[in-house]
Design goal:
Blueprint (H helix, E strand, L loop, with lengths): L2 H22 L3 H18 L6 H22 L15 H19 L5 H9 L6 H8 L6 H22 L1
Helix pairs in contact: 1-2, 1-3, 2-3, 2-7, 5-7
Length: 164
């Protein structure tokens, strides 16, 4: 991505993401990150858009729409998932394979995401305060950072899940 394009689009992206985030039930930073990723993918496959500002506005709206739709379809478990204590060898092998796939995907995440996700997945069940101290970041930034990392992880795992 050319530095000039980033410099030119950053204020517009910040404004557009801030405007769309509340209605989408998303964090503006998450929308920004998703649009930067889309732009990188586009630059790699098709080159820069003819009208970058218009492309950016459409991309922000599309990401906000995707976030709204995803939020509607995601539901928390009504009860805790079943205990694996009585699982047979096949279930244990499948669970171990899923765990390895998840950890491999976590290692492919950008920036601080691998360390943050490893801390969140730790069997020690660390608190946000402990994780923030371990990573050297503020406790208040953990939630937004976690959301961005989970979004990246979701995008990484979607093709793998769909293939199965």
């Amino acid at each position: 991505m050319t530095p000039d394009l980033v410099t030119a689009l950053r204020p517009l992206l910040t404004a557009e993401a801030s405007a769309e985030a509340h209605a989408a039930g998303a964090d503006a930073g998450d929308l920004e990150q998703a649009v930067w990723l889309r732009l990188l993918e586009r630059l790699d496959s098709e080159g820069p858009p003819l009208d970058p500002q218009e492309w950016l506005r459409r991309a922000v709206r599309a990401e906000a729409r995707r976030t709204r739709l995803t939020g509607r379809s995601e539901r928390p478990y009504a009860v805790e998932p079943a205990d694996d204590a009585d699982a047979g060898p096949e279930q244990l092998a499948l669970a171990a394979a899923r765990g390895r796939a998840l950890r491999a995907a976590v290692r492919r995440l950008p920036g601080r995401c691998p360390r943050l996700m490893e801390a969140l997945l730790s069997p020690e069940d660390l608190t946000y305060r402990e994780i923030a101290g371990e990573l050297g970041i503020s406790q208040g930034s953990l939630g937004p950072e976690r959301s961005r990392c989970l979004g990246c992880l979701r995008r990484l795992l979607t093709p793998e899940v769909a293939a199965h």
